[in-house]
Specification:
By secondary structure, the protein is of the alpha/beta class. It has three domains: 112 residues, NAD(P)-binding Rossmann-like Domain (Rossmann fold); 189 residues, 3-Layer(aba) Sandwich (Rossmann fold); 74 residues, Alpha-Beta Plaits, CATH 3.30.70.260. Helices cover 35% and strands 19% of the residues. It has a seven-stranded parallel β-sheet with strand order 8-7-6-9-10-11-12, sandwiched between helices. Strands 2-1-3-4-5 form a five-stranded parallel β-sheet. Helix 4 links the parallel strand 4 and strand 5. Helix 5 crosses helix 8. The structure holds nicotinamide-adenine-dinucleotide and 3-phosphoglyceric acid (3PG). The site of nicotinamide-adenine-dinucleotide has 31 residues, from helix 5 and helix 8. Belongs to the D-isomer specific 2-hydroxyacid dehydrogenase family. Catalyzes the reversible oxidation of 3-phospho-D-glycerate to 3-phosphonooxypyruvate, the first step of the phosphorylated L-serine biosynthesis pathway. Also catalyzes the reversible oxidation of 2-hydroxyglutarate to 2-oxoglutarate. Pathway: Amino-acid biosynthesis; L-serine biosynthesis; L-serine from 3-phospho-D-glycerate: step 1/3. This is D-3-phosphoglycerate dehydrogenase.
Length: 401
């Protein structure tokens, strides 16, 4: 079986993939049509930020699994993968510390104007007067949007800096806030109004597009810092540009609209050029530690997929299928028994959804659960029961909606 690794990946973890019996095609930098072409030969594809378009799923019919060696899956056409029954998995949390560290790097850089300090000295300018103007982080209020793996890692570090931390996140309960030792804001606007630094850590989804809206940015106090290490799409880009141009806010961002997907390119960023903006090159996850953890998780996912048939961290398995009923058939573990059961289901014109067959010790009996999208007629159940030499027991339960 062939695995295509289309982005940088630590060498010794490529060996771990080979150790799983895979033939490894390591071709970092592949993209577009070349990626689709190379994926034709592969059963598994591993990528970082390389875009995996619908075309890849169209032409690479042998592809079974795509692993995003990172957190965000917004660069993969997950819908196209789902339409073709291809699993998509990611490595959640494995790069959270690296991103939290960069977030603090940016926060400290803004407060102390470190990049401008350095640039001035490189140009032969000494300006202690200007660069001495810093507020300090201790005691200041940090707002965190998105209290997942990265948001929590940022909160922990902010507490060590003596900052007051307030959070806003989906499904963020008062109990969770208490457990983290932080305050909880009722809304994103309420959060923005009270913080001197706002940092965002949500995924790019249809729900989060423009989440940090013009209104939210306007609610930040004058002189506040806005940090984005998640995705450019989660912010109203125009409003952010305007705030940064006016110099009312200081912006630190690791992600930019239309940023290149690969390692090197020429790229003109309007936002990145402004004096009130410190922009980095989407390097949040790029520490050796994080890439090692990500690679280990990638190997674990591939291993479990190959050897146990399960896909850890799968992001595209239906949370809810159209199934409304579950047929439970305890049966003798013999050739053709399940085929006969499914034949009865087919003859009733019912669609089977998820099917699970569990074998008991000794391999004499098994229990098969078949989820059905409508209620089967009694005759169908009788028909299955009537094969007494094969069937031990048949039951039907209605699934909770
Ligand atoms: N700059 C980088 O290199 C880098 C590295 C890793 C991750 N990221 C980005 O950061 C994102 C977050 O990563 P993570 O590991 O913390 O993910 P995560 O899934 O652990 O956390 C995301 C949090 O956002 C919350 N959330 C989701 N939708 C929301 C909404 N509409 N409103 C409020 N809260 C919402 C979730 O409840 C969750 O708590 C990733 O999806 C990725 O886009 C960037
Ligand atoms: O979502 C992620 O994991 C980050 O954005 C990292 O992207 P990268 O793997 O391209 O550095």
């Amino acid at each position: 079986m062939r695995i295509l690794v289309a982005d940088e990946f630590p060498k010794h973890h490529l060996d771990s993939l080979r150790g799983l019996g895979l033939s490894v095609d390591f071709r970092p930098g592949l993209k577009g049509d070349a990626l689709a072409e190379a994926a034709k030969e592969a059963s598994i594809l591993v990528v970082r930020s390389t875009e995996v378009s619908a075309k890849v799923f169209e032409v690479a019919t042998g592809l079974s699994l795509v692993v995003r060696a990172g957190a965000g899956v917004n660069t993969i056409d997950v819908k196209a993968a789902s339409a073709r029954g291809v699993f998509v998995a990611n490595c959640p949390g494995q790069n959270a510390i690296a991103v939290a560290e960069l977030t603090f790097g940016l926060m400290l850089s803004v407060d102390r104007h470190i990049p401008d300090n350095v640039a001035a000295l490189r140009q032969g300018v000494w300006n202690k007067k200007r660069f001495s103007q810093a507020k300090g982080l201790y005691g200041r209020t940090l707002g965190i949007v998105g209290l997942g793996a990265i948001g929590v890692a940022v909160a922990e570090r902010a507490q060590a800096f003596g900052m007051k931390v307030v959070g806003y996140s989906r499904s963020f309960t008062p109990e969770r806030a208490k457990a983290l030792g932080i305050e909880r804001a009722e809304s994103l606007l309420a959060l923005a109004r009270q913080c001197e630094v706002l940092t965002v850590h949500v995924p790019a989804t249809a729900d989060t597009k423009g989440l940090v809206s013009r209104q939210v940015l306007a609610a930040l106090p004058d002189g506040a810092t806005f940090i984005n290490t998640s995705r450019a799409d989660v912010v109203d880009t125009e409003a952010l540009l305007e705030e940064a141009r006016r110099g009312r806010l200081f912006v630190a961002t690791d992600v930019l609209p239309d940023e290149p997907k690969g390692g090197e390119a020429t790229f003109q960023s309007e936002l990145g050029k402004l004096p009130h903006v410190y922009a980095t090159h989407h390097i949040g996850a790029s520490t050796e530690q994080a890439q090692d953890a990500i690679a280990r998780e990638t190997v674990r996912i591939v291993d479990q997929f190959l050897n146990e048939g399960v896909v850890p961290n799968c992001v595209n398995v239906a949370e809810r299928t159209p199934a409304r009923y579950q047929l439970i058939v305890r049966h003798h573990d013999r050739v053709g028994v399940l085929a006969n059961v499914l034949d009865a289901v087919r003859q009733a014109g019912i669609n089977a959804q998820e099917i699970e067959n569990t074998i008991f010790e000794g391999a004499h009996a098994a229990c098969c659960k078949i989820q059905l999208d409508s209620r089967p007629p009694d005759e169908m159940l009788e028909r299955i029961r009537s094969r007494a030499e094969e069937i031990i027991f048949v039951d039907l339960v209605e699934l909770r909606s």
